[in-house]
């Protein structure tokens, strides 16, 4: 009698667990990270991190769960399914994306499988010591700002009177390497310390800008997906203002992220030549000729714009890189001595084949996640 | 007595209708400034905007940077009317739209052609159906929707 009751309760319990979609888990092992499990309840916790334009209808992109557990850049993956089949995926497969579904299955291409193990191969350079937040930590150290709990480390131990940040939107590390090889960036690359660094996921301008301005990881700044344009966390501009230091931010036609406690100057395409970079350059020169503040932020958008339209590393993108290099040279020329110049990108770019777009970014892959940080002094 | 009541009923109904139409405008504490290269800087309240002549824009393609593109309908005050009232300098090159949350965007005068300061989307007050995006939004049909600044607080005219 008791056995029958226990058996009945066991069946009911199993049905409840199955009905809730709970109970499943699969293992992830990676090149540099301790193994971990992706479990049913994680997908619910990570659901709010999903971008509105994600195409995972029954779950979330797997790369969200991977990033939340310490994976930084996916090179390739091998997935072992419950039925013993193995599937080899390259980084391009993650653009589709690979979806982690609520029922414990994975979807990629035309496949729907129940995984047992996901083996992730990471890029070695992504596990290096450099991160986009190193820029913030450097600004904080150089100008003596009171920024706490930063995710990055300072890249110099010297003190400077001025810091000029030159933000090249969409200038990923592979574009930097190609431009360097073709001799297109003499002003950017000469007499410089050049580092490869990893940006934040999703690699988009708003999330990366928040990481740059606050020095925090997305979960800490509250800017963990596209569409969030404000942060409660203190920014480098807030901290500079608290210290009584002057700052200025010269942007393109729109603020990439809300900026407070600085003088923000927009540079719309007033000459209507299809680019805001020349306007940004003119505004930067005018502002700097009137006196170089302690902290300057100059954001060129054209490399990213062309990357979206023509695809990464195309002739049109490289032409824009050379144009911006010319602007950078002229800006550096008018800077006073005792100035630290940091040139960096927010994200890179990968190829896509859409009707009106041949480039995009937003995935946990090398082309999107790895950026240059270039340090120069005057 | 009956005749008196009969006389007052239509007036009462008319008054009730007027009140109902006034009451349909949400009670929102919001002002929009028009500044910069203008001869008559303006500051108009939400209620004043609602009383101005409204233009309906239907079948407007909303090219979104996040999420699916949509065909939408908007209603609001033509930007050109506000700029005329503020005495915007002829031949101004661009406007800068500033939002209450600190966001700002510059839009050329060509791109701003046909724009409205939208108060309603698909016949419903933005303030009521989408308060985070409201109560007023710049709708520029000539540009992608990520440039349609919501929480619109100020429009600066640049010469």
Q: Care to describe what's here?
A:
The complex is a heterodimer of chains A (378) and B (159). Chain A is α/β, with parallel strands linked by helices. Chain A has two domains: 22-124, no CATH class; 128-377, 3-Layer(aba) Sandwich (Alkaline Phosphatase, subunit A), CATH 3.40.720. In chain A, 33% of the residues lie in helices and 23% in strands. Chain A contains 13 helices and 18 strands. A seven-stranded mixed β-sheet of chain A has the order 11-18-15-10-14-12-13, sandwiched between helices. A five-stranded mixed β-sheet of chain A has the order 2-1-9-4-5. In chain A, strands 3-6-7-8 form a four-stranded antiparallel β-sheet. In chain A, strand 6 and strand 7 form a beta hairpin. Chain B is of the alpha+beta class. Chain B has one domain (28-158): Alpha-Beta Complex (Sulfite Oxidase, Chain A, domain 2). In chain B, 25% of the residues lie in helices and 35% in strands. Chain B has helices at residues 2-23, 46-51, 79-86, 126-129; strands spanning 31-36, 42-45, 55-62, 70-78, 94-99, 104-108, 116-121, 124-125, 137-139, 152-158. In chain B, the strands form two sheets. Chain B has a five-stranded mixed β-sheet with strand order 2-1-10-5-6. In chain B, strands 3, 4, 7, 8 and 9 form a five-stranded antiparallel β-sheet that branches. Chain B is globular, with a radius of gyration of 18 Å.
The count of helical stretches of chain A stands at 13
Number of domains of chain A: 2
For the record, the CATH architecture of the largest domain in chain A stands as 3-Layer(aba) Sandwich
Element order of chain B: H for helix, E for strand: HEEHEEHEEEEHEE
Give average pLDDT of chain A, whole number.
92
Instruction: Please give the CATH class of chain B.
Output: Alpha Beta
Radius of gyration of chain B using CA atoms only: 18 Å
Q: Could you say how many structural domains of chain B there are in total?
A: 1
The CATH topology of the largest domain in chain A is given as Alkaline Phosphatase, subunit A
What profile does the largest beta sheet of chain B have? 5 strands, mixed
Mean pLDDT over the residues of chain B: 86
Tell me, briefly, the overall form of chain B: globular
Q: Provide the structure class of chain A.
A: alpha/beta
Strand coverage percent of chain A: 15-25%
Strand percentage of chain B lies at 35-45%
Provide the low-confidence segments of chain B as ranges.
Answer: 17-23
């Amino acid at each position: 009698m008791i056995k029958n009751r226990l058996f009945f309760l066991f069946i009911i319990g199993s049905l409840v667990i199955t009905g809730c979609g709970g109970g499943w888990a699969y293992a992830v092992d990676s090149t540099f990270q301790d193994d971990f499990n992706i479990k049913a309840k994680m997908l619910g916790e990570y659901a709010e991190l999903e971008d509105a334009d994600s195409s995972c209808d029954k779950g979330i992109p797997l790369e969200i769960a991977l990033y939340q557990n310490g994976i930084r850049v996916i090179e390739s993956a091998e997935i072992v399914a419950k039925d013993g089949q193995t599937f080899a995926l390259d980084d391009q497969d993650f653009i589709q994306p690979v979806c982690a579904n609520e029922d414990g299955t994975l979807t990629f291409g035309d496949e729907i499988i129940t995984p047992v193990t996901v083996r992730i191969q990471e890029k070695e350079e992504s596990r290096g010591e450099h991160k986009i937040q190193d820029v913030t930590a450097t600004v904080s150290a150089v100008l003596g700002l009171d920024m706490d709990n930063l995710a990055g480390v300072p890249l110099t131990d010297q003190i400077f009177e001025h810091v000029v940040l030159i933000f090249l939107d969409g200038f990923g590390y592979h574009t930097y390497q190609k431009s360097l090889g073709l001799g297109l960036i003499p002003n950017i690359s000469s007499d410089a310390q050049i580092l490869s660094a990893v940006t934040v996921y999703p690699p988009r301008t708003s999330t990366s800008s928040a990481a740059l301005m606050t020095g925090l990881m997305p979960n800490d700044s509250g800017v963990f997906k596209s569409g969030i344009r404000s942060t409660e966390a203190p920014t480098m501009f807030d901290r500079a203002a608290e210290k009584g230091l002057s700052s200025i931010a010269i942007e393109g036609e729109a603020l990439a992220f809300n900026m407070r406690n600085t003088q923000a100057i927009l540079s719309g395409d007033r000459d209507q030549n299809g680019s805001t970079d020349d306007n940004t350059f003119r505004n930067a020169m005018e502002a700097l000729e009137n006196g170089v503040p302690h902290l300057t932020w100059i954001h060129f958008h054209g490399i990213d714009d062309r990357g979206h339209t023509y695809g990464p590393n195309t002739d049109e993108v490289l032409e824009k890189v050379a144009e911006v290099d010319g602007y950078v040279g002229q800006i550096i020329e008018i800077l006073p001595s005792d100035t630290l110049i940091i040139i960096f990108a927010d994200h890179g770019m990968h190829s896509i084949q859409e009707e009106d777009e041949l480039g995009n970014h937003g995935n946990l892959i090398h082309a999107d996640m790895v950026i240059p940080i270039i340090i120069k002094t005057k | 007595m009956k005749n008196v009541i009969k006389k007052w009923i239509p007036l009462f109904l008319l008054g009730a209708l007027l009140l109902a139409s006034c009451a349909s405008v949400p009670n929102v504490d919001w002002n929009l400034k028009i500044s910069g290269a203008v001869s008559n800087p303006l500051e108009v309240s939400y209620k004043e905007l609602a009383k101005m002549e409204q233009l309906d824009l239907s079948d407007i393609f909303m090219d979104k940077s996040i999420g699916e593109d949509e065909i939408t309908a908007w209603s609001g005050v033509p930007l050109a009317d506000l700029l005329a009232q503020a005495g915007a300098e002829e031949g101004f090159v661009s406007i800068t739209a500033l939002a209450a949350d600190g966001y700002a965007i510059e839009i050329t005068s060509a791109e701003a052609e046909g724009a409205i300061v939208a108060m309603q989307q698909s016949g419903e007050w933005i303030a009521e159906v989408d308060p985070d995006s409201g109560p007023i939004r710049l709708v520029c049909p000539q540009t992608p929707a990520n440039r349609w600044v919501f929480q619109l607080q100020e429009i600066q005219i640049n010469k």
